[in-house]
Q: What sequence folds into this?
């Protein structure tokens, strides 16, 4: 059976480098964790099925193409279509809940604390952010919230590294302390890598770099899965 051709549209140039979108890097990590080959292209939000980045084009050998958007739905589609193993398939119910909680912390909380790039993006999203609640806080509050999230994630990784069943290839360790990554690892690495390369968020980059376990975690994943990519420093 011939595998389909996958093209990931990241919203950034198709170079061997990380991009500012945590969701694009999350999806790249998902594909690389599964050993699925893919190409990258720039793309644009209006061209995606839901008007946002990232989106994935799946082209079969017969030329039929399906385009899917939303990083979580794309991951689920890969599993449903038999292209990737379910990273969370062997988790106990409590572990699945913990995995989901980590992803929600990053995607539904930390994401809204990040710096919005460009005044146009800010004007378009300011009303949404006010309604969502983030824009009601002071810059000092937001800074504290961001540091709290990253410091707690650093502590979680430090604890997971000590678990008896932790330890993947090349000394890697993962969010839940297992010997293989789960969906939470795709999201966490996506947010770390994007935070380290995003010039518009120097405060976030400084926080991440100050946390040794976070950096060790990211360095090991970079070395094993993204060695072809330009390093963030």
A:
């Amino acid at each position: 059976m011939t595998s389909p051709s996958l093209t990931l549209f990241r919203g950034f140039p198709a170079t061997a480098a990380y991009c500012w979108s945590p969701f694009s890097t999350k999806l790249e990590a998902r594909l690389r964790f599964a050993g699925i080959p893919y190409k990258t292209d720039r793309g644009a939000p209006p061209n995606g099925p839901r008007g946002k980045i990232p989106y994935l084009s799946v082209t079969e050998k017969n030329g039929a193409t399906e385009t899917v958007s939303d990083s979580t739905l794309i991951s689920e589609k890969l599993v449903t279509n038999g292209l990737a193993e379910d990273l969370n398939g062997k988790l106990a119910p409590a572990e699945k809940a913990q995995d989901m909680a980590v992803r929600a912390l990053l995607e539904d909380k930390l994401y809204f604390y990040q710096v919005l790039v460009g005044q146009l993006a800010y004007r378009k999203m300011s009303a949404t952010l006010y309604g969502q609640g983030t824009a009601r806080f002071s810059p000092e509050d937001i800074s504290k919230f961001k540091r709290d999230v990253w410091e707690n994630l650093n502590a979680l990784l430090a604890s997971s590294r000590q678990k008896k069943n932790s330890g993947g290839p090349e000394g890697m360790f993962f969010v839940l302390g297992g010997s293989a990554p789960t969906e939470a690892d795709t999201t966490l690495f996506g947010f770390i890598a994007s935070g380290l390369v995003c010039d518009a968020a120097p405060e976030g980059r400084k926080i991440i770099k100050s946390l040794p376990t976070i950096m060790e975690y990211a360095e090991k994943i970079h070395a094993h899965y993204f060695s072809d990519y330009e390093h963030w420093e």
Residues 139-161 form the longest helix (23 residues). The two ends are 41 Å apart (CA to CA).
